[in-house]
Design a protein that fits this description.
This protein has a six-stranded antiparallel β-barrel. The protein is built from four helices and 16 strands. The protein has a single domain, classed as Trypsin-like serine proteases (Thrombin, subunit H), CATH 2.40.10.10. With 286 residues, it is mainly beta. It is 8% helix and 30% strand.
Length: 286
Amino acid sequence: MRRSIARALIGPLALAAVVTAIPLAASASAAPAGVVVGGFPIDVSQAPWTVALSSRDRFGRTRAGQFCGGVAVSRTTVLTAAHCMADEVVGTPPNRVGDLKVIASRTDLLSTEGEEIAVRDVRVNPRYDVETNSGDFAVLTLAEPLPRGAVVAMAPKGDAAYEPGSQALVSGWGDVTGGGAYPRHLHAARVRVLADDVCARAYPGGPDGAYRADTMLCAGDLAGGPDACQGDSGGPLVASGRLIGLVSWGTGCGRPGDPGVYTRVSDVLRSLGGSAAGPQRPEKGS
């Protein structure tokens, strides 16, 4: 039986092999969303908008409390996956997590580079559907601003970056093997955006989730290959210098016929009235 998995860690952090599909965030019974499977190490300067979500009280100090990824879309705004903020992941309503922080400008989670900034407010998309995984995003407001160069532009509906075949980069600190190998260092993988009909055939619906082209996109290779994994949830998928997706869910990691599914950023912009902050690319023809 095939199950869909969110790509987040379920804390306390357990570095166990994940053999089913879950949202890409951590939970009390699941391992954190994995680092990019089939990818390669990068320096954070190559994807400076990539941040780690951290709670040492919940996930311990082994990996600086990292349990999900996120992406800076303004100096004080970070997007992540809604399922990363679920009670079963963080152990309490998200605005009650006393030590919730964003780790920015850091390649090695255990280094002292970069900065750790407290999260002042968490807004989970009220339309997030846990049955289909549709609308899987949350907006974090930071207590202090990030550096100007840490922000990535969001691609609106109609941007060419969403077109099938576009090459994109996904980055995070998740499982790099699909078997519970969580690195300290930031990794990335190159994937290609796939057509909506291909994604719909891969995930037609059922108890584990369903592909919805208006709120999701998928990327990877139907033959299997590089993919996001557990612990990468909420991290960025960037094409042509614009943010097009947030790591959300999938079946396994890098398996043939099961591409990774991402929250479609154009739907985030629509849901927020186009005011999620950060520079935005105009639609083609506008």
